[in-house]
Automatic annotation (TrEMBL):
It comes from the Bacteria. Residues 24-282 form the EAL domain. This is EAL domain-containing protein.
């Protein structure tokens, strides 16, 4: 009897594994098709200069609206795109769209300071020898000044610390773009790579921002301060990620963190929605100007 039961369980287990594998294969095929058809959309999240709360720029974030499953979050589809290689084409589309959008917003909402457009690059894109030509092409075709473009690379990718990565990053840097370490502080790595790579910006990962207002975490403030001070002493800019409440923004500003982004200021938004917000605020008649729109 026990044997029969065991076998039944085994069959059940196999069936659910098979369903999972099929599901993943189907999603992967759908993703390939969506990339081929240029169906991956993008949202933009404002990046805010914390001192004065003015608009410093945007981060572009990929969005996949699956025809039957609805919105698939990036942490689900980006790894699939990395596995099947479609991240290279997807990343190129996001990059070109973001550069063209940045030029239109620079013209429509002029400011004295140069605003940044920040684009996430996956490790897989960095391994692709075509990446330097892709970035150069996106800049040339859009007319975006190179120093307005920030390329974000996660700390875990930088930790791999290979000669090829250094060469690739140096070639990108030579185009005049700026390089950011995304999710800084989550990799528990040695900090050696900060000296090896031509980095300009540290993006403080959300857990450190959360720790700022966590009463149960007395060391939270010290860790955030250490990251801000590290950035300053290496002459890097610091952008805090995932600011959800005003007290975090205030604490970061007090620590000397230059920029931040998060739901407290604005969520990632479709370009039309963001434009409406910026436009209404600019007209400043029926709409109270958000503090961050300088
Ligand atoms: P990331 O680059 O660290 O982007 C920040 C993520 O935090 C975004 O999630 C954003 O929506 C979210 N976020 C922003 N403010 C807040 C906040 O106040 N609270 C909370 N809880 N979350 C906040 P999203 O859009 O789901 O993207 C997740 C990750 O997927 C990104 O993390 C990035 O690593 C990756 N990703 C997104 N778009 C692309 C892309 O075009 N290319 C590549 N290679 N990766 C991408
Ligand atoms: Mg990012
Ligand atoms: Mg991040
Ligand atoms: Mg991330």
């Amino acid at each position: 009897r026990a044997k029969a039961q065991g076998k039944g369980r085994h069959v059940l287990f196999e069936a659910s594994m098979e369903a999972e594998v099929l599901d993943r294969l189907e999603l992967e095929a759908d993703l390939l098709r969506a990339v081929e058809r240029h169906e991956i959309a993008v949202h933009y999240q404002p990046v805010i200069a914390l001192d004065g709360e003015t608009l410093a720029g945007f981060e572009v974030l990929a969005r996949w609206n699956h025809p039957t499953r609805g919105l698939v979050p990036p942490p689900h589809f980006i790894p699939l795109a990395e596995d099947n290689g479609s991240i290279v084409a997807l990343g190129r589309q996001v990059l070109r769209t973001a550069c063209a959008q940045a030029v239109r917003w620079i013209d429509a909402f002029p400011s004295e300071e140069r605003r940044i457009m920040s684009v996430n690059l996956s490790g897989r894109q960095l391994e692709d020898p075509g990446i330097v030509a892709d970035v150069a092409g996106a800049l040339a075709d859009s007319g975006l000044p190179a120093d307005a473009l920030v390329l974000e690379i996660t700390e875990t990718v930088l930790m791999q610390d290979t000669e090829a990565t250094i060469e690739r990053l140096s070639a990108l840097k030579a185009l005049g773009v700026r390089l950011a370490v995304d999710d800084f502080g989550t990799g528990y790595s040695s900090l050696r790579y900060l000296r090896r790579f031509p980095i300009d910006i540290l993006k403080m990962a959300k857990p450190f921002v959360d720790g700022l207002v966590d009463a149960d975490d007395p060391d939270g403030r010290a860790l955030a301060r250490a990251i801000v001070d590290l950035a300053a002493s290496l002459n890097l800019s610091c952008i805090a990620e995932g600011i959800e409440v005003g007290a975090q923004a205030e604490a970061l500003r007090a620590l000397g963190c230059g920029m931040g982004q998060g739901f407290h200021f604005a969520r990632p938004m479709a370009p039309g929605d963001l434009e409406a917000l910026l436009g209404d605020a600019g007209a400043a008649r029926t709409f109270r100007t958000p503090a961050w729109l300088g």
